[in-house]
Amino acid sequence: MPVRLDEELARAQSSLSRAIGRARAGEDRELAQKVREGGEALASVLCGLLKMSRVHAADNRAFDAPVAELSRVVAGLHELLGTLQLVTVEDQVYLNDFRVRTEGKAGVRDLGAELAKHNVGGVAVHAPLDGPAVRALVTAFAERPAESGPRTALAAGLAMRGVRAVELLPRFRFRAQSEGEQAAIDPAEALRRALRLCEESFDQLAAGRVVNPLPLRRAVVELITVGPATPELWEHLGEALPHASHAATVALLALLVGRAAGFGQAVLQDLGLAALLHDTGYAQLPAEVAQGPDGLARHPGEGARILLRQRGFNAAKLRRLRAVLDHHRDHAAPGGAPSILGEILRLAEDYTTLLRLHGARISPADALGAMARAAGRLYQPALVQLLVNVLGRYPPGTLLELDDGRYARSISPVRSRETFAQPFVRVYDLRTRALSAERLDLALCGAVRRTLPG
Known about the structure:
The chain is α+β, with helices and mostly antiparallel strands. It contains 18 helices and twelve strands. The protein folds into three domains: 31-169, no CATH class; 183-391, Hypothetical protein af1432, CATH 1.10.3210; 399-452, no CATH class. Helices cover 53% and strands 11% of the residues. Strands 3-2-1-4-5 form a five-stranded antiparallel sheet.
C-alpha cells in the first residue's frame, strides 16, 4: 500500500476516533437536540415569512422581527453544522438528515406546501443570511410561480437579487403504500434516478457544495425494494456518465453481497449509500491529480472528509465513513482488517474495475477467478465466496455461445440456487454488437456451449 494512503488513512482514522469518543461522551445527543430545535425554529419562521408575503411586501416593518429571527437562527445553525439542508418530504421535515418534529406544529408542517408552489422540495443554505438577503429570498418566493420550470425560474430570481448562498433543492417523496403493501417501482426508472443523483452529487461536490444524503438514501431504498438481482437494473447501467455508472454498479454488487450476508435493512441502506458515494473524493481533487496515482491514494480520505462536513455522528454515519475510508484497504493490511462494509466495497470496486479495464480480454468469470486467488490477502475469503454465489457461473455481461449456435449476453445475477448456471440472457450480434429485444430464460430453454472473453 502506498505510504501516502497510509498517511491519509491514519489522519482520517484519528479524526474518526476523536468523533467516536465525542459521541460516546454524549455530545452527539446534545447536538441532535440542538439541530432538531434549530430545525423546528428555522422551518417555522421561514414558513411564516412565506405566508406573510401573500399580504405584505417584504420591506414592510411587519417583517422586521421574523427577518431578524431567521437571520439569527441561520447564523447559529451554520456555526454548528456548516451548510444547512432543510428538506421537506410530504409532511415531514429534515435538517441535515435529522428529522424535525412536526406533530402539532402547523407552521413547520406547512413549509412543504409553501415550497411546493415553486416545485421546490427544500433549500440548502451555504452561508449566513443577513436581513437584506432574507428579504430578497422572501420577495423571490412571493413572485407568481412560472408555468414552466418554476424552480429554475425561482433560482434565476434569487440570483438576480444577489442571493447566492441559497440553493433550491428538488422535491422528494416517499412511495405510496396501501395496506402495508409496497407500491410498484419500475426497476429501470429506479436505476435512472440513482444514476442521475450520482451525476448531480459529483457536480455539486466539484462546485464546492455539500451533498444532501436524503435523496441518495431514498434511491438506495428503491434499489433494495426492487431487488438488486433484478435484470432490468443490470441492463441499464451504461446509460450515464462513467463515474455514475461505476458507482451504481458497485452499489448493486455490494447490495447483493450484503443481502447474502444477512444484513438488515438499515445496514443495507448504509452499505448502498456508501457505495454510491465511495469515489466522490475524486471530485475534490484537481483533474491532474485525480487521474494519476496520487488520486487513487488520496480519494478515500477526501471522500471521508466530504462525509465529515455534516457534523454530528451516529452509528449509521460511522458505518458509511469507515466503508468509504476502507474501500481500497487490503484484507491483510497492517493494523487489522478493514471494516466489513469497506471489505464489501473493495470487492465490488475491484471486480467492476477489472472488467472495465480488461473486459475485452477476460470474462466476468475470469475476473472472479483472479479475485478468488487473492482471497486472504486482498479480500476476506468468505466475502469472495458470497460474491461468486450471488453472481453465478455466468455473471451479468458474460458473452456466451448457446447450444444452437447463437451468441448471447447474460443480463442477470443468480435468482435462486437452482438457476446458478441459468441466467436471463439476450441474443447478441457479434458483428453489430447489438442485443435483441427478446429476453431468454436459460432455465426454461437453451443451454450454454461455452463462454467467450469480451
